[in-house]
Specification:
With 467 residues, the chain is of the alpha/beta class. It has helices spanning 17-24, 66-72, 97-110, 125-136, 154-159, 180-188, 203-206, 209-217, 233-241, 293-308, 313-322, 349-362, 382-396, 406-415, 433-443, 461-466, and strands at residues 15-16, 27-28, 35-36, 38-40, 50-53, 75-78, 90-93, 116-120, 142-144, 168-172, 192-195, 225-229, 248-253, 260-267, 272-278, 283-288, 331-335, 338-343, 368-373, 400-404, 426-430, 449-453. The strands form 4 sheets. The chain has a 9-stranded mixed beta sheet with strand order 9-10-8-11-12-13-14-15-16, with helices on both faces. It is globular, with a radius of gyration of 24 Å. Mean pLDDT is 93; it is low at 1-10.
């Protein structure tokens, strides 16, 4: 069983058996007391002194690995009482091991005075979280979500790495359904919340864009400060309908007047240059080292959150300029006279449009080539959303469109409809990544700028590897 890397969790506050009982309402099955230096749900990676939570998932049950975990670990939290308990080990029985993991994380969070910043939104969550971390960690000892530990398991595991010397916490919050953000907020009790935007990710599961917005706005409950995108009209409309939020709202944007703004945005060879304009009258120039207008928005969200926490503007400027970005998130490299943009980490309709806009901006000198894979989790909206991407490809002036996947084939056909706008010079369609890999090197030419993007399930980075 492999979900969490216990090496991420070895600096947590020391937890006593009494605290675990208090937090979870569990029953101690042994007469041995003690403390734990960490938490793990991975029986193979558990370290000496750590506490094993026997989590039951859709495809596994941690109880099957209990004795393996107890070989190295100091104890375990279980739902089902084991047949025997090895000597010297501590076992606590609870009604629900996952709920108990979350309750313990909440208990430990409430022992800390560190402000918690929570980040959600349809696009840009991880980058915004990392930019906020870059700023806050320049001044304070800061804990952040590692990787994509942004769900009902990953978030509590992150909080259980909270140390006595941590002064700030930055958490990413993802969701697939209504109520999930609310539950994450119950666990983490954030002081500041950031909503990057409202797009169409998870619309297939939630049924409408309005439902997606409602799910994201759950983050507002209990916040002291909400940082929101002033240029996202759909988000702004939703904020106006919220009746029970009494905290302070800090806005960021490029087009609409906001508390934190980017003015004179200009693409550069390394990323984007702009003037960071704070409503209090401070203005500084920022030379961002990541490409795309969407990353300017991520930087603004980070600046707004950091400024609301009292970080001086010059420190915000310096930290944003040192941020280098993530692999497979609009990651640009050059080889053989071709510029490759690896944006293969994930995709949804709104992030596809943002990345295509970025392709047009950075690829003005030669052919703009879009290699796009299927978008998942759209359910009954899938066909229409893929066709719409085909329209966007045509309207934006992409020169070569390489569609990968059966659904993106619908986009390929739609892109050839001249009524949509500019004519795409070349359109290719492949049923899967393996088929595309065999032909794509023959399509590309020196001077091309090539965007590769698709949902995680498509593993579009395999095409990047060939290129």
């Amino acid at each position: 069983m492999m979900i969490a890397d216990s090496s991420l969790l070895n600096n947590m506050l020391t937890i006593t058996v009494d605290e675990i009982i208090e937090a979870t309402g569990g029953e101690l099955l042994t007469d041995k007391a003690g403390t734990f230096s960490g938490v793990s749900i991975d029986s193979r990676a558990i370290a000496a002194g750590e506490l094993f939570f026997a989590i039951k998932g859709d495809k596994f049950d941690g109880h099957e690995f209990l004795y393996s975990a107890l070989e190295n670990g100091a104890g375990a939290v279980v739902h089902t009482c084991p047949d025997h308990i090895p000597d010297g080990k501590i076992v606590i029985q609870v009604e629900d091991t996952l709920r108990s993991l979350q309750d313990l994380a909440h208990f430990m969070r409430m022992k800390s005075n560190a402000p918690v910043v929570a980040v959600t939104g349809s696009n840009g969550k991880t980058t915004t979280k990392e930019m906020i971390y870059a700023v806050l960690s320049s001044k304070y000892k800061t804990l952040r979500t590692m990787g994509n530990f942004n769900n009902h398991i990953g978030l509590p595991l992150t909080l259980l790495n909270l140390g006595n010397d941590d002064e700030m916490v930055v958490l990413e919050m993802g969701m697939n359904a209504l109520g999930e953000i609310s539950r994450l907020c119950e666990i983490a009790v954030p002081d500041h919340g950031v909503i990057t935007n409202i797009g169409t990710a998870h619309m297939g599961r939630l049924g409408s864009r309005e439902a997606v917005r409602d799910a994201k706005l759950e983050i507002l409950d209990g916040l002291n400060v909400a940082v929101v995108n002033a240029d996202d009209d759909f988000l702004v409309q939703g904020m106006k309908s919220v009746q029970n939020f009494h905290g302070r709202v800090v806005t960021f944007g490029i087009e609409n007047e906001a508390d934190v703004m980017a003015r004179n945005v200009c693409p550069s060879s390394k990323g984007s240059d702009f003037m960071l304009d704070i409503k209090n009258g401070e203005t500084v120039s920022v030379n961002l080292n990541v490409h795309g207008r969407f990353n300017v928005y991520n930087a603004l969200a980070a600046a707004a959150a950091s400024f609301s926490l009292g970080i001086p503007v010059p420190d915000i400027q310096k930290s944003l300029e040192t941020y280098k970005g993530f692999p497979m998130r609009f990651e640009m490299t050059k080889k053989g006279g071709i510029t490759f943009i690896n944006d293969a980490y994930n995709a949804n309709p709104s992030s596809m449009k943002e990345s295509l806009q970025g392709l047009i901006q950075v690829g003005a000198a030669g052919r703009r080539v879009a290699v796009l894979g299927d978008m998942s989790e759209l359910d009954e909206f899938s066909d229409d959303e893929h066709r719409n991407i085909g329209k966007v490809v045509s309207e934006m002036g992409v020169d070569v469109f390489i569609a990968v996947g059966m659904k993106m084939g619908l986009a390929a056909r739609e892109s050839m409809n001249v009524e949509n706008g500019k004519s795409v010079q070349e359109v290719y369609s492949f049923k899967d990544v393996d088929s595309a890999k065999k032909e794509i090197t023959e399509i590309l030419k020196e001077g091309d700028t090539v965007l590769v993007k698709g949902s995680r399930s498509m593993s579009m980075e395999r095409i990047v590897g060939v290129l």
